[in-house]
Backbone:
């Protein structure tokens, strides 16, 4: 089943119009959300990011748009598809309704929700560390659109093809100034001298949900976090590197160029992250 504007429909009943603006122009955003125990993890952060993106793109959200409604339509679909108390990966796509060329005839938004079952609610650290590199062919501009999870994802598609061809675990995207923005589907953290370093919001990265969660967890546990420009040379000087996103949590990096890393800090942060998930599930009953 899918959920189209909050209504459950069979997958084979969904038809994409040639005038669909997500298809024609990439005119929209999407959100990747993890459901654990039938509940939306970090729903307020996801809701805030979608709402902010809609305002940036001049999209009019549905009249009933509110955090409880956002959670309700997501859990309704995941429960229908995977059962009560399920664990799932959810994609929430928000796009402008059909019509117009570059200039739309309406700013009203529509949304489509899809779900895929997961085996467990807690996050699991990768056993083998990632080897990462730098994508050399395109740099990402840092502007008002950079923080959005845009449906127009050609940069990430091409970077992912390059990553696969180089047999790497992930690839880093640089901004126009040559500083690290992000990986193909993750934010990046460096560990140096017991503190965390992550690219600042003005460096061109998508505004990551898990990035926000990790920063808050670190602060709550008296771990210093610094948001600043990160150069490729800074990676070589780091004690550890890990990548974060809302589905996989934390993935530790084993190597960049000739440098090799361990995962002691990554394991500590993953334990704190899973403690937070357990507390959330216990509190929600």
Residues:
């Amino acid at each position: 089943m899918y959920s189209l504007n909050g209504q459950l429909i069979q997958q084979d009943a969904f038809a994409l119009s040639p005038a669909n603006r997500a298809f024609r122009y990439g005119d929209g955003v999407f959100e990747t959300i993890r459901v654990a125990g039938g509940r939306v993890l970090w729903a307020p952060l996801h809701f805030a990011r979608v709402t902010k993106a809609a305002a940036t793109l001049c999209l009019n959200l549905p009249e009933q748009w509110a955090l409880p409604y956002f959670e309700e339509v997501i859990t309704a679909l995941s429960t229908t598809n995977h059962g009560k108390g399920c664990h799932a990966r959810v994609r929430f796509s928000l796009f402008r309704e059909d019509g117009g060329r570059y200039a739309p005839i309406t700013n009203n938004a529509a949304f489509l929700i899809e779900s895929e079952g997961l085996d467990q609610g807690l996050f699991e650290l990768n056993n083998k560390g990632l080897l990462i590199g730098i994508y050399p062919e395109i740099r990402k501009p840092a502007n008002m659109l950079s923080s959005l999870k845009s449906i127009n994802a050609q940069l990430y598609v091409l970077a992912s093809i390059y990553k696969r061809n180089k047999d790497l675990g992930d690839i880093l995207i640089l901004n126009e100034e040559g500083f690290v923005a992000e990986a193909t589907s993750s934010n990046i953290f460096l560990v140096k001298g017991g503190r965390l370093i992550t690219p600042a919001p003005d460096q061109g990265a998508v505004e990551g949900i898990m990035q926000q969660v990790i920063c808050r967890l670190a602060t709550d546990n008296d771990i210093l976090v610094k948001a600043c420009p990160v150069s490729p040379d800074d990676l070589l000087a780091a004690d550890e590197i890990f990548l974060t996103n809302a589905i996989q949590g934390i993935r530790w990096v084993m190597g960049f160029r000739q440098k090799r890393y361990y995962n002691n800090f990554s394991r500590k942060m993953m334990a704190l992250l899973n403690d937070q998930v357990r507390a959330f599930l216990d509190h929600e009953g």
Q: What stands out?
A: The chain has two domains: 2-117, 130-281. The two ends are 27 Å apart (CA to CA).
